[in-house]
């Protein structure tokens, strides 16, 4: 290298360093899709999970929150085939949503829900998913909220301990019943007291003060759902500000997936458009 080449290279260093600095300051977020968005098609078998994975790849999204309700089976052969399809399409199956209700008042019922967690953690392990989401369930008749939280936290703790042996995080979702609001949802995660326990924070499920409640969950958030609507302080629905929510996630230190969950009946026409919006927003903030 001659003197002119050396000086030219040195002059370029500050600019290159600045660009690297900008990238490093970007949030580490990824855009996903929740399979529940296509619940009608999956239930009717007019769409398969393989079809959905290919759509996600075509839309440039990063991953699938694989709501498992419509799996044709959970045989090792099927799960291996689904995992292969995801890999071949560059899609990460990062989360599995399962029908587990944590809040159970008796040891027998708690053991039954724990058994379901074990079953689906093993399925998630075969799929390569690092997260399983469960639900708080309803508060049993005659029980106080604090009793219900303690029961749910006990099942969550046992489930998280088992999930941790597979390197999988268990996240309780704010979604009606005991977990209608952020407060009890956070308490379940806190009382579970495990590095493998967290919250699947669904921004659109909160009944009022949506952004404030979402912020309350951020220190415990391990996976995220974004919907098209949020609630204001009075509980009125308004269009969700995804940029605001993603900024909140990034500033909190969250690194991971934000999955679009669409709940209306026109998914075929609307989800591709919304997926493009989410992909653009995430990439803009993630450097």
What does this structure look like?
With 287 residues, the protein is α/β, with parallel strands linked by helices. It has a single domain, classed as Divalent-metal-dependent TIM barrel enzymes (TIM Barrel), CATH 3.20.20. It is built from ten helices and ten strands. It has helices at residues 3-25, 39-44, 49-59, 76-88, 107-127, 145-164, 182-192, 210-217, 242-252, 267-285; strands at residues 29-34, 63-65, 92-101, 131-135, 169-173, 197-202, 221-226, 229-231, 237-239, 256-260. It has an eight-stranded parallel β-barrel, surrounded by seven helices. The protein has a two-stranded antiparallel sheet with strand order 8-9. Helix 6 crosses helix 7 and helix 9 (242-252) crosses helix 10 (267-285).
Q: Descriptors for this entry?
A:
287 residues; alpha/beta; TIM Barrel; 8-stranded parallel β-barrel; two-stranded antiparallel sheet; disordered N terminus
In short:
By secondary structure, this protein is α/β, with parallel strands linked by helices. The chain has 10 helices and 10 strands.
- Looking at CATH, which topology would you report? TIM Barrel
Q: Total number of β-strand segments? A: 10
Strand order of the largest sheet: 1-2-3-4-5-6-7-10
Globally, the shape reads globular
CATH class: Alpha Beta
Helix-and-strand structural type: alpha/beta
Q: How many structural domains?
A: 1
Low-confidence stretches: 1-25
Helix and strand arrangement:
Layout: H1 3-25, E1 29-34, H2 39-44, H3 49-59, E2 63-65, H4 76-88, E3 92-101, H5 107-127, E4 131-135, H6 145-164, E5 169-173, H7 182-192, E6 197-202, H8 210-217, E7 221-226, E8 229-231, E9 237-239, H9 242-252, E10 256-260, H10 267-285
Parallel strand pairs: 1-2, 1-10, 2-3, 3-4, 4-5, 5-6, 6-7, 7-10
Antiparallel strand pairs: 8-9
Helix pairs in contact: 5-6, 6-7, 7-8, 9-10
């Amino acid at each position: 290298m001659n003197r002119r080449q050396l000086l030219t290279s040195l002059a370029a260093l500050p600019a290159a360093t600045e660009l690297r600095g900008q990238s490093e300051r970007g949030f580490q977020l990824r855009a996903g899709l929740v399979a529940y968005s296509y619940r009608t098609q999956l239930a009717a078998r007019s769409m398969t999970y393989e079809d959905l994975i290919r759509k996600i790849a075509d839309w440039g999204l990063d991953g699938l929150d694989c709501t498992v309700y419509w799996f044709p089976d959970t045989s090792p052969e099927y799960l291996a085939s689904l995992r292969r399809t995801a890999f071949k399409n560059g899609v990460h199956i990062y989360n599995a949503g399962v029908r587990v209700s944590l809040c159970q008042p008796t040891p027998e019922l708690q053991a039954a829900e724990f058994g379901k967690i074990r079953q689906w953690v093993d399925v998630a392990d075969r799929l390569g998913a690092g997260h399983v989401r469960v639900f708080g369930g309803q508060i049993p008749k005659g029980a106080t909220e604090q009793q219900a939280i303690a029961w749910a936290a006990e099942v969550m703790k046992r489930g998280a301990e088992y999930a941790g042996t597979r390197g999988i995080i268990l996240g309780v979702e704010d979604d009606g019943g005991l977990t209608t609001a952020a407060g009890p949802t956070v308490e379940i995660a806190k009382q579970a007291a495990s590095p493998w326990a967290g919250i699947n924070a669904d921004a659109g499920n909160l009944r009022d003060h949506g952004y404030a409640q979402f912020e309350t969950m951020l220190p415990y958030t391990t996976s995220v759902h974004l919907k098209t609507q949020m609630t204001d302080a009075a509980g009125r629905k308004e269009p969700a500000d995804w940029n605001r929510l993603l900024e909140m996630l990034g500033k909190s230190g969250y690194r991971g997936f934000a999955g679009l969950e669409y709940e209306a009946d026109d998914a075929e026409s609307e989800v591709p458009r919304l997926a493009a919006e989410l992909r653009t927003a995430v990439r803009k903030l993630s450097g």
